[in-house]
């Protein structure tokens, strides 16, 4: 078993267990610290590699042994640099996965809060009461529509009376006026002087002519009144 495995399985996890495991924020902070440390190590190795190359050029063929030693050290540094590059890639992948997991956890947590809030709101709601409320709203809307239609419709005052009954009553009134007129008519007195020949026929003809004239005038007035009533009824309708 490698030392790294022992570290994570042994002493490295003891502190985590005592605390119930690190939080995502703590783990992300540790990973960023590790990335920063490895980045500094990279800069150091790159500097050492340049230095060993300079030493190898300086000695060259004059001191092959020293030049070869410098190139060997450069190779070791390059190997360490490649290992660090791989480690940084792994850490970066782990950090991104942890960040995504943390984001998903927060999203699920907030969605859970929202679900609890909705449940709490719906606890005070009764579907039967909601149906009754919607029915009341619909009824009130219908009442409001009827009121609006009634207000906007044309006023028809007097249409509730039967026109035929009114005309019959009017004819009765006219007949009463005609009868009253007939009663008020005063026939001329009989002359005291001697009448011409056939006086009976003359008097009867005079009275008939007078009555016929009065009836004709009353009939004409009645026709005019009927025309006026027809015009009034047509205007009202």
UniProtKB/TrEMBL annotation:
One of its GO terms (biological process) is late endosome to vacuole transport via multivesicular body sorting pathway. It comes from the Eukaryota. It is found in: Cytoplasm, Cytosol; Late endosome membrane. Its main location: cytoplasm. It is a peripheral membrane protein. The keyword Membrane applies. Gene3D superfamilies: 6.10.250.1710, ESAT-6-like. Keywords: Coiled coil, Cytoplasm, Endosome, Membrane, Protein transport, Transport. InterPro entries: Snf7_fam. One of its GO terms (cellular component) is ESCRT III complex. Residues 1-26 are annotated as: Disordered. Belongs to the SNF7 family. This is CHM4C protein. It comes from Sinosuthora webbiana. The gene is Chmp4c.
